[in-house]
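so i finally got all the pieces together for this one. its two components total, 462 residues if u count the protein bits. some of the lines might not be protein, just check the labels. i wanna see the whole assembly predicted at once instead of chain by chain like last time, that was a mess tbh
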Amino acid sequence: MGKGLTTRRMVVAGVLGAISILLGITRLGYIPVPTPAGNATIMHVPAVIGGIIEGPVVGLIIGLIFGVSSFLNASIPLFKDPLVSIVPRLFIGVVAFLVYIGLKRFNKYVAIGAAGFFGSLTNTVFVLAVAVARGYFTLPVALGVAIANGLPEAIVSVIVTLAVVAPWKKIGASRKKKSKIS
Amino acid sequence: MTRFEWSRKITIGHYIPIDSIIHRLDSSCKLLGFTVLIVAIAFCNSYFGNVLFFTFALFLFVLSRLPIRYGLSGIKPAIPFMVILAVLQLLFYGGGVTASGTVYIHYSFLLITSDSVRLVVVSAMRFVEIILVSSVLTLSTPETELMHGMERLLKPLKYIRFPVHQFSLIIMIAVRFVPTFAMEMEKLMKAQASRGAAFGTGRWWQIIRRTKDMFPLMIPLFRSAMARADDLVLAMECRCFVPGQSRTTYRRGKARSRDFSFLLIIIGFSLFALFYPFPG
């Protein structure tokens, strides 16, 4: 992995950021679950995918786009606090990247799935931790939310991440040999 | 079929060329002004302040001579979700986080207080206002203008080695692709529906079913997004795009007194609506 923002990284960050925004404004990215946190979301999946495919910087930028759009769309005071809605989201892609790099040697599919799982978990845990620290939730409430929202989110995240990244990694490998224009 | 037509209803990211005061404003001032306005709306908690912001958003539409239908249609697809959300908030929020305010109904786990009612009303209004305001911004400014405006606003950050140009380009790509993906999603939904998928028929309590409904949409959407990203990278590299290279612009925006007075009016109005102690 080279340093800095290449053209490819910029474009991937932009495109996946667009999906995150789209899921937010059409409200397709929400799964209404009756908990105090409002609804479970799958809007963090682009950040996970970006982190795995193009590295931590891209994951961080997509997380930022996701955070800002969820801050602007927030329908409960919890996410109107930038500390809750933006800061924890920065880590989603970074954690997913680290998990993927760490496990890649053993089994690629497991690594991708685990990255999806832990990326999603990062979102749940950090958001709730900040929420508890800022006094929005008490600890038992937060634990309940973690199970009711966090689990379905993590499962959805694993499935989508695997389905998108696994074939992509293979295509990317074969395309390197043959350019699209040749 | 009409319920699949997302692209017509999503108003973020379409530029409408008309001549109006709002259209002619300098893009960096406009961007800053609208950002201030959106942040102010996000933090406004009183009924009266929200009514003020709502009126102001409508006023912006009139001022920019944009058809108001366009702004309102952006809200339409969100209505069912907003209603569900409002009901859930009303029923479950009162006891959960802050049990303050006047209690209206208290029956075992049900607790409806003036605070939870306020939360529901204000969050719905806030959503509508933010959609309206951001529609005015993107309907009245071409994307490239927006990007240059953002670049000029962020320029001071260059001194701490923040990649300003790359960053604003990423944001612009994101904003530019939202309507494209909305169209893509519409196509996907129609394609899947014609094969017998039943979107949007699951009731809100069938959480697992509604989640499963998403997979045949999400996965192709991501795949086609990545394919598009590939094409765009190729196109940019063919045109010798080098990230971070300094470049000049064809047009140079220059903020005039008119732009600054617009900015001052917006900041003043936002501060007033946020901090003036309204009754209630």
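Residues 8-161+252-280 of chain B form one domain.
Residues 189 and 195 of chain B are 10 Å apart (CA to CA).
anyway lmk what u think
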